[in-house]
Design goal:
Helices cover 6% and strands 32% of the residues. It is mainly β. It folds into 3 domains: 70 residues, no CATH class; 184 residues, no CATH class; 106 residues, no CATH class.
């Protein structure tokens, strides 16, 4: 098998920028991602093993239920239960506590020392998922960015984004009655949210009350008219931090002509019970949050309210493009048995004698067509290339590229195969 080395200009490294879109629908505390509802399985309520509206990090344990089987996985027959790997019905990672001192990242050093005996099995979980989260802070932005730990953490990002416009200067809005933060994990948008793609829709009884869009590509969320026009159309209801995946909503005005849209009574941060009307401060209420009312039960949005969040992300996919050349006069022999004309020589035994050993010469099958059946056309060595193997510096096969249909290779033909790998 011939091996060729990639020459200068045969390998290209590049990046492909993609913009995958995401859509979240929030209703009565439930989230639906890209209009995908719960897909029930044979053993669990959701085959992915994660809540509806979430994406699974590892995509393992598909349609697997957690079950206490009492069995032990593997050869361990130790009488000490802490040294056994239990069969829980789920796939999960585990390590043994030993001299290598390996543990999972979430385990603190003090817990590793005191909570686990030598030889103990340390387990983790693959049931990791992610979705959007809403957090409401019942304080003005002035104090949110100075006394609140969440606001203090993102204040530098807000101040840096102010280069796009004064709408990011939220610390001066002392008259605002709170700030509504929508947190979007990076798994949904990649390196940053694409500018100009963010849209927030607020529905009451299925009627579009209003929308916010960053239509000027500068992070300012401008209210657009819904079914009913509003005096606040054209006002800035919040801002977007594109790289951090945060939406900060400060629009406290009431949606007009929607007097029946009261969300209900609930508490902000476990303090004061309030009854509120539709505004951007309660947008996405119930999206992975728990706000308790004075009666001690979770607050829920009124059944007439629903919300839609649309945006596109920016994913940069590293790619490697390789050019594999099959030059003229090369790669025109194969060990495939069909390459030999067995009709001419059927015996494959070697020719031997007292002082001689030699293999019989075989005739290459001539598949070159001619205008006449007899005589046939002159012989042209012809092969068909079906795969291209990629090897590392140690000549170990690290990849195989297969073609859709065999490519005919004759002695007078130059071929170049373009191989592309997305990392």
């Amino acid at each position: 098998m011939p091996l060729y080395e990639f020459g200068v200009g045969d390998v290209f490294y590049n990046q492909i920028k993609t913009h995958p879109s995401s859509s979240f629908f929030i209703y009565l505390g439930s989230i639906y991602y890209n209009n995908k509802a719960t897909e029930s399985g044979s053993f669990v309520a959701n085959v992915c093993g994660v809540p509806t509206g979430h994406v699974s990090l590892f995509e393992l344990n598909v349609d697997r239920a957690s079950t206490a089987t009492g069995r032990v996985i593997g050869p361990s027959q130790s009488a000490d239960s802490h040294e056994n790997v239990a069969d829980t019905g789920l796939i999960y990672p585990f390590v043994y506590k030993g001299s290598s001192k390996l543990a999972f990242k979430e385990i603190k050093r003090g817990n590793f020392i005191s909570d686990y005996l030598p030889g103990a099995v340390i387990t983790s979980s693959y049931q990791m998922s992610s979705s959007i989260v809403r957090r409401f802070y019942n304080e003005t932005p002035k104090y949110f960015f100075t006394t609140n730990k969440t606001g203090s953490a993102i204040r530098n990002s807000v101040d840096y984004a102010a280069r796009l416009g004064q709408h990011y200067s939220l610390t001066g809005n002392v008259d605002d009655t709170g700030i509504n933060v929508i947190d979007i994990p990076s798994v949904f948008y990649g390196s940053e949210i694409k500018k100009g793609t963010v849209k927030l829709d607020y529905y009451i009884t299925g009627t579009l009350a209003g929308s916010l869009r960053d239509k000027y590509f500068n992070g300012a969320l401008i209210q657009e008219a819904g079914t009913y026009s509003s005096a606040k159309d054209g006002e800035i209801g919040g801002v977007v931090l594109y790289e951090e995946g945060l939406i900060l909503l400060t629009g406290s005005w009431q949606m007009e002509a929607l007097e029946d849209g009261v969300l209900g009574t609930y508490e902000y941060d476990g303090t004061t019970a309030v009854s509120t009307v539709p505004s951007w401060l309660n947008y996405a209420f119930g999206a992975n949050e728990v706000n308790y009312n004075s009666a001690g039960s979770p607050g829920k949005a009124n059944s007439s309210a629903s919300f839609v969040l649309d945006f596109a992300g920016t994913q940069k996919v590293p790619t490697v493009t390789m050019l594999a050349h099959a030059n003229r006069g090369e790669l025109n022999y194969t060990n495939n048995p069909t390459y030999i004309d067995n009709s001419v020589i059927k015996a494959k035994a070697a020719t031997t004698g007292s002082y001689f050993y030699g293999e019989k010469e075989f005739t290459i099958k001539n598949i070159h067509s001619a205008s006449y059946a007899d005589p046939t056309g002159s012989l042209k060595k012809t092969t068909y290339i079906t795969k291209v193997g990629i090897y590392d510096d140690n000549k170990k096969l690290i990849g195989i590229a297969s073609v859709a249909k065999p490519v005919k290779k004759t002695e007078d033909r130059d071929l170049t195969f373009k191989l592309k790998l997305d990392i």
